[in-house]
Specification:
Keywords: Membrane, Transmembrane, Transmembrane helix. The protein is an all-alpha fold and 99 residues long. 92% of the residues lie in helices and 0% in strands. The chain contains three helices and no strands. The chain starts with a helix and ends with a helix.
Length: 99
Amino acid sequence: MNIEEAQVKEDERIKKREAAWAEEIAKENESRNFAGTLVNFIGWATVILSVIFGLWVSMEQNGTLGFVYIISGTVTGILLVGFSEVINLLQKIYNNSRK
C-alpha cells in the first residue's frame, strides 16, 4: 500500500505542476509582443492613410494615380498586419516551448 500511495501522491503532484505550467503559458499567450503590436498598428495606419491620401490625390489630380496609391498602400498595410501576426505566433510558440 505504501508504494501505491506514494505513486498516487507523485501523480497528483505532477498533475498540479502541469496545471500550473499550463496556466502560466496561457497567461503569457494572452499577452502580446510589443514588436508585433507595433507592426500591426503601423500596418493598419498605412491602410487608412493610403486610402485617405489616394482619395485626395484622385480628387485633386489624376484618378488613376489615386487608385494606384490606394491599392499599393492597402497591399503594403495588409502585408505588415500579416507579418505582425507571424511575430505574435512565433512568440506563442516560444512561450509554449519553454516548458
